[in-house]
Amino acid sequence: MTFDGHDSFDEHGSFDEHDGTFEGRRFPDESEWLGTELPDDFEISDDFVDHTVIAVRSPTPEQLQAFDAPAPSADFVSRVTGAIQQDRREHWREMLARYVAPEPSPEFVSRTLRALEERAAERAQRDTEDARATGSPGVGPRGIVPAEDATGPENTFHMWRRWGMPLVAAAAVIIAAFLLPGDPPRALEVRAAESLPAAFGAANATSPLPALLTHLDQEADPYGLPNTGGDGVWLLMQRSTR
Amino acid sequence: MTEPWMTGPELITRRSSLPATMLRNCLRTWLCSLLALVGAPVCGQDDAATRAKIEDALAELDAAFAAGDAARFLAAFEPDHTGAHALLEQRMLRIFPVDRSGKSPYRRKSTILGAPRQLGPRTVARVRHELFKGSVAIAATLEDTMMAFRESGDTLVPTLAIETPRQAECSATDKFTCPACNYEVGGVAGWLCVPMGRDRAQALEASSFYLMGTDIACDVSVRIDDRRTAMQVVNELAGVLREVESDATPNLATNWLPPAHAGGSEDDGFIADLEGARIEIALPSQHDDAGAVAIFHALQFGSLQHLLLVRGSHGAIQKNRQTVDALLASFRLLDSNAERAAAGARALQMHVGGVVKDGRYDNGKHGASMQGPANWQVQQRCGGALFRVLWTGPDDSRIWLTGFAVPPGMDYWCQQTADHWVRKLCKSAGIEVPPENKTPDVDKWATDGLCDASVRTLNCQAPRQSGVPGKARRVLRVMFRANLLLVGDGTATTDEHWQLIKRSLGSMRL
């Protein structure tokens, strides 16, 4: 056997990566390798070392081809472009989100409206007082302040009627939902029985197991008639009503 | 022949003689007490007094039944088991509509069979119910009731009422043994054994054990199943339970063997081919805040399958864990050397009867037979019907043969009840049965020339087995005599198979 460096190693040979063996044989360590006697028919050419160094330093086109980048898939460009655009959208969304004002709460709205109304009422009152001081009407044909601009108990009542009653009603519903006892859960035996027609014997069993077994049997033979006994009470009630 | 029991609006009975019964029982009790006071030996005084109290309770229930007053009937109970009581309520409300007129010639009489006995904190008795129309007894197959009672002052209050077939024998030790199904279970203190009828059990055999004074029950079922392992069964049961109870939360299924067979050697009960599994399912919305628990146990020995379902509130099971474990430990296979391959066949032969040979099904126990097509695969299936045989041919052509016993509460099959039952089954299976007047798809009832039975044929439409949209033809041959209803049902994909099916259905004999 001659080894001159041109022989290629069959990378699909019987090499066991897990055990690190080739054809069942473990690769010798350094001392074993150095101590191994060459076979009698094994010849090494004189330029073996040079040959090997040249081969390592100057790989063939075929060897280099193994390191070529794979051809891009047909949708590679579109996928990458889409990913880049998505990334940019997310980035801008995060940036802009810092400048998005929060939705005003109902309390804020009512508080603001109330403040505006009070302010308008104060202005109207000031105008009225100024008018009295100067003798000119400033707030209406008979000097009557419009109801929506008036301050005092009437406005408070209107405000309560507008906002308070619905809030109180909503609070009462929420409290009742939590405090009042709900319907007791139906027993498992009843649920199992109700999962079958009342005509079936298993629907009248005192155990839920027959109902579950009936469902299993129906799944096993979905095209057959139900393999179940009947209930005589149901049958006779049907007969008596026809 | 007794008349069929007509229920519903027609079942309103005369008021039973409650005052006379109570007076008789009181006199009996006073006489026993007087004799005991003067030192006379009164044998069974306690038994007599207990019996009298139970009779008083039954009289009240019969009176409520007679008045059609479901609320009064249910109010007489102080239930231990809320689930069983809820089912009793559902059944009573179905029997007694709200708008009863209060007039009926029917009445119910309850009598105690055997002697009441003390079981844990409860007194139990087997009660037989008889229905009368005038002086004529009707509904001879009505189920008995196993009842439990609790002391309440000088009376006994019913806490549990579970139906059991008349022909089922309850062991005095509450141990259930079946050599054909190769097992025994029970005989543990405090547990009441109540056998269940096949038409309710959806199994070859079933019984329920109730721990007296608690809401704990253990249901035992025996089936034939050669298509699933024990692990598959418990997982599938858990899946079905989740469909029924949406907030059921199964834990992981684990291997399990009953303690009697969990040893490492044959001397310790180990059986090589026995496999078992267990799964625990939490039911948080049941019972009180602690919820309830359902634990499925499955054992597979060949095609013979034993199922045990332990159920109850979480608190009760925690508190009675030892006695629950004792019941599970009482389960054992009788013959550990039984041949695995024959285990299911022996149980099937005993409970169902019927053999298959050369494609022919013969059931000598119930007197039914049918010749199936040659070379079609034949299977005997286990379920709630009396028997079920399935022939499967090429291209999914099939013939089903199903036998139905007379359901409890009826005395015999007739044309109307047979029609109602078959139509109900077809409706459940999505099979469209033509209306009565649509001939020739619907035959009239006739007497079969070869056997003394009524027979008719129905040409129906059913969903295609392949799932392809549209309907497929389905032929049903219905045959009955007084004590058995036989339904042959075939569907085919080729004309040749239809000929075979027609020939097979024509060979049905009853």
**Computed structural class of chain B:** alpha+beta
Helix content of chain B: 25-40%
Order of adjacent strands in the largest pleated sheet of chain A: 1-2-3
Strand-residue proportion of chain A: under 5%
Number of strands of chain A: 3
Low-confidence residue ranges of chain A:
1-10, 137-150
Q: Give the strand tally of chain B.
A: 26
Q: How many domains comprise the coordinates of chain A?
A: 4
Indicate the radius of gyration of chain A in whole angstroms: 46 Å
List keywords for this structure.
heterodimer; A: 242 residues; mainly alpha; 4 domains; flat; B: alpha+beta; Nuclear Transport Factor 2, Chain: A; Protein Transport Mog1p, Chain A; eight-stranded antiparallel beta sheet; seven-stranded antiparallel beta sheet; 11 helices; 34% strand; disordered N terminus
What would you say this structure looks like, in words?
The complex is a heterodimer of chains A (242) and B (510). In chain A, a hairpin with a 4-residue loop joins strand 1 and strand 2. Helices cover 53% and strands 2% of the residues of chain A. Chain A folds into four domains: 51 residues, no CATH class; 28 residues; 74 residues; 54 residues, no CATH class. The N terminus of chain A is likely disordered. Chain A has nine helices and three strands. By secondary structure, chain B is an alpha+beta fold. Chain B folds into three domains: 157 residues, Nuclear Transport Factor 2, Chain: A, CATH 3.10.450.50; 168 residues, Mog1/PsbP, alpha/beta/alpha sandwich (Protein Transport Mog1p, Chain A), CATH 3.40.1000; 155 residues, Protein Transport Mog1p, Chain A (3-Layer(aba) Sandwich). Chain B is 26% helix and 34% strand. Chain B contains eleven helices and 26 strands. In chain B, strands 8, 9, 10, 11, 12, 13, 14 and 15 form an eight-stranded antiparallel sheet that branches. Chain B has a seven-stranded antiparallel sheet with strand order 20-21-22-26-25-24-23, with helices on both faces. In chain B, strands 1, 2, 3, 4 and 5 form a five-stranded antiparallel sheet that branches. In chain B, helix 1 packs antiparallel against helix 2. Classes of the chains: A mainly alpha (242), B alpha+beta (510).
